[in-house]
Design goal:
The chain is mainly alpha-helical and about 90 residues long. It is built from 6 helices and no strands. The protein has one domain. The structure holds iron/sulfur cluster.
Length: about 90
């Protein structure tokens, strides 16, 4: 059974919109209760299922590309630089 969010993304893909290539592995989409449902809906609308120009701005997408992983505390609109994210990881883990 697909979640409401996966359904939105599948529908987006059917409409030939170019959703984010990370949708099948991203925690925001795939882990229930990873974030509040209302936040999830906003992120999916504004980033994941939006046009390429939008999901390319997602900090989770950028971080995954630069570090080959994305820590859980990074959200699509996180304003930390990648270096700041690395600093936080070093301090906290
Ligand atoms: S949160 Fe970012 S990386 Fe994850 S699927 Fe959405 S746009 Fe892609």
């Amino acid at each position: 059974m697909y979640s409401k969010y996966q359904f939105i993304l599948f529908k987006t893909q059917k409409m030939n919109k170019s959703s984010c290539p990370n949708i099948h592995g991203c925690q925001i989409i795939n882990i229930k209760d990873f974030i509040a449902p209302e936040d999830k809906e906003i992120y999916i609308k504004n980033y994941c299922s939006s046009e390429k120009e939008e999901w390319e701005k997602c900090k989770r997408y950028i971080t995954k590309n630069e570090l080959n992983f994305c820590p859980d505390f990074v959200m699509p609109d996180t304003e930390y630089t990648t270096d700041q994210i690395l600093d936080i990881i070093e301090k906290e883990y």
